[in-house]
Amino acid sequence: MQLEIRGVSAQYGSVTALREISLTVDTGEIVAILGPSGSGKSTLLQVLAGLQPITTGEVRLGERVLTRPGFIVSPEQRGIGMVFQDFALWPHLTVADTIRFPLDGLKQSHEEKMARVRELLSLVQLDGFGARYPHELSGGQRQRVAIARALANRPKLVLLDEPMASLDARLRETMRIDLARILHEQDASALYVTHDRTEALVVADRVALLHAGEISQSGSAADIYERPNNRFIAEFLGPVNWIPAEVMAEREGAHAEAKTGVGLHLEGGVRVPGLSAQPVPVGRTGMAMMRPEDLELVEASASGTRVWHGRVQAAHYMGMHWQVVVEIAGIDPVTVYHPVPVTVGSSVGVQLRRPAVWFLASAAESVREPQEASAVR
Ligand code: ADP
């Protein structure tokens, strides 16, 4: 069922925690709300759970209004499942009893309820664990129980509040994929709150970035990672090299030719947001965005329109690769990933691997018109 958040603001006294937020979560869709601490994530969850009043706007689930200024449907009447950061399992209930608990009020026979419990145990891959107590489970298993409990009642919407926060790094990696599968199998719409960018990118069908109580961008993971609306979003999602650039001429589609401050000529090489809808911004200066993985180290003798030269300033071992910082005359040092160690002080070439890079017109903002989050798919 579709969740519609329309123009919602929420306040704590004089503090505005959410400012006219609009976002739609379609039936069966997983949307991650990604944002730094204090951006309003918990407040949004509380609004959706029915624990926090709003001052403007409306929250609907399907046709039903859940919250309006001065009106709140209580948490237990919303048909919403919740998964909390600490899982909130009761120590005295077995796994089976925990999962069955939300079914207690339903007019179903004991057999029907137990059949649903078995179905859920199998869904979260805990067959045979029904008789165990929480202290007899690992962190990952406890989390699966919390997920099964949240889904027991076949909720129309599942809210997940940093559900991986208390799991170790290795477990998180497998759980991300499992969680996406489980939610999709139950066809539940889900809103997933996290400050972990990798988690958001992996789990969600769509990511909405919350910043200072506003949604600054929403789109597919690739959309916001590769085409961020502004520098804050770009940097929140991962390391970036910003190379000063100037647009020279329009090319096909939304591409433009640009030259960079280091003499790198990006022929057909920058994608300028909104270009196809606007006159060519020739002469516009800005920043070409190059993530470390967009670049590679090449021989110092290499040449070409996408190669420039510098000196290795530092190299850090990162496990999967070396993070190499290269000093280049005229711009800030550039960070590149490299599979093998390199000698600090050596001369190298840095080559752009992509045919095109993203371009932001100024440090703070993009030329893309701000869009209502729900309209961006
Ligand atoms: P997040 O979950 O992203 O860390 P929150 O929703 O908790 O963000 O907070 C959003 C803003 O609202 C912050 O500025 C925070 O200080 C403020 N805030 C949150 N809860 C309260 C409260 N109970 N009273 C006053 N201000 C609050």
Distance between the ends: 18 Å
Q: What's the pLDDT, averaged over the residues? A: 86
Report the portion of residues in β strands. 25-35%
According to CATH, what is the class of the largest domain?
Alpha Beta
Content-based structural category: alpha+beta
Q: How would you portray this structure in words?
A:
By secondary structure, the protein is an alpha+beta fold. The protein is 21% helix and 35% strand. The chain has a 6-stranded mixed sheet, sandwiched between helices. β12 and β13 (255-260) form a beta hairpin. Mean pLDDT is 86; it is low at 363-377. Residues 12, 15, 17, 35, 37-43 line the site of adenosine-5'-diphosphate.
Summary of the model, kept short:
With 377 residues, the protein is α+β, with helices and mostly antiparallel strands. The protein has 2 domains: 3-231, Rossmann fold (3-Layer(aba) Sandwich); 233-360, Beta Barrel (OB fold (Dihydrolipoamide Acetyltransferase, E2P)).
What layout of secondary structure does this protein have?
Blueprint: E1 3-12, E2 15-25, E3 30-34, H1 41-49, E4 56-61, E5 64-68, E6 71-72, E7 80-83, H2 95-100, H3 110-123, H4 139-152, E8 157-161, H5 169-185, E9 189-194, H6 197-203, E10 206-211, E11 214-219, H7 221-226, H8 231-237, E12 241-250, E13 255-260, E14 265-271, E15 285-290, E16 295-298, E17 307-317, E18 322-327, E19 334-338, E20 347-352, E21 357-360
Parallel strand pairs: 3-9, 3-10, 7-8, 8-9, 14-21
Antiparallel strand pairs: 1-2, 1-4, 4-5, 5-6, 10-11, 12-13, 12-15, 13-14, 15-21, 16-20, 17-18, 17-20, 18-19
Helix pairs in contact: 3-4
The chain binds adenosine-5'-diphosphate.
